[in-house]
Specification:
Elements (H helix, E strand, L loop, with lengths): L1 E8 L7 H13 L4 E3 L4 E4 L2 H16 L5 E8 L7 H14 L1
Antiparallel strand pairs: 1-3, 1-4, 2-3
Helix pairs in contact: 1-2
Organism: Streptomyces fulvorobeus
GO cellular component, one term: cytosol
InterPro entries: MTH1187/YkoF-like (IPR029756), Thiamine_BP (IPR002767), UPF0045_domain (IPR051614)
Length: about 100
């Protein structure tokens, strides 16, 4: 499965980069395939391990902010691995052709 999620503190002002970095650090240290862009962090793995990473990323932000916003989207598809790469490669192939 691939989960794209965004976690952000609420009520700490406009500059939330250091809080978001705490969440992204959890994802990167998980060892699961992941990507971060301007809006979301995507992580790929089995249900329990991905959801555990999301839970810990939220907890990392919550430890410094009393309120946290979480947006999550999941692609649950059995038997697919390396979806983070293969989905993008498919789109790029269609754009090139």
């Amino acid at each position: 499965m691939i989960v794209a999620f965004s976690v952000s503190p609420v009520g700490v002002g406009e500059d939330v980069g250091e809080y978001v970095a705490d969440a992204v650090r959890v994802v990167r240290e998980s060892g699961l395939p992941n990507r971060t862009d301007a809006m979301f962090t995507s992580v790929e793995g089995e249900w329990d391990e991905v959801m555990d990473v999301v839970r810990r990323a939220v907890a990392a932000v919550e430890a410094r902010a009393g309120r946290v916003s979480l947006v999550l989207k999941a692609d649950i598809r059995q038997g697919v691995t390396d979806g983070l790469t293969s989905k993008v490669e498919t789109v790029e192939r269609h754009l090139a052709g």
